[in-house]
Amino acid sequence: MLMCYYVWPEVSLPKDRPVDKLIVYKSRRELLVYSKGELLKVYTISLGGYPLGHKHYEGDKRTPEGRYTIFAKNPNSGYHKNLGISYPNALDRDYARKNKLSPGGDVKLHGLRNGTGWIGKFHRWMDWTAGCIALTNGEIDELYNAVVVGTPIWIYP
């Protein structure tokens, strides 16, 4: 049964449709990908080690909540590939400053740590990142090719 889960093929993201919006529902562990209002694909994701609540400071292992954008693409990440999320925004920096904390940064959509891609879909069974949003390497490859810098991403509880 486990082998079926591991090898069961999933629907690919259409290559001919421009991705113009990403929505994350942390409580459902889902990343939804849209083009012109049409849902193209739903990915199952892993989050930070303490996924409940908004990220407030560096090292809290929480995934932020709010409206951000994809601001960078890195094909040479320590986690296969990644798409940079524009955390912290002005509200995040203001909160951290008022509480004398560092908001942190480097929140990404990324694949699995280099050398561990064989884990595949099994990574979804736990929240293991430091606050990022993780997918399989094949999934981040799809998104990396389809998402342009400037694409909005909404992250909800």
Concise description?
It contains 3 helices and 8 strands. By secondary structure, the protein is of the alpha+beta class.
Report on the architecture of this protein.
- By secondary structure, the protein is of the alpha+beta class.
- Helix content is 16%, strand content 26%.
- The chain has helices at residues 2-7, 90-98, 137-146, and strands spanning 21-25, 30-35, 38-44, 66-74, 82-85, 108-110, 133-134, 152-156.
- The chain is globular, with a radius of gyration of 15 Å.
- The mean pLDDT is 92.
Strand-helix topology:
Blueprint: H1 2-7, E1 21-25, E2 30-35, E3 38-44, E4 66-74, E5 82-85, H2 90-98, E6 108-110, E7 133-134, H3 137-146, E8 152-156
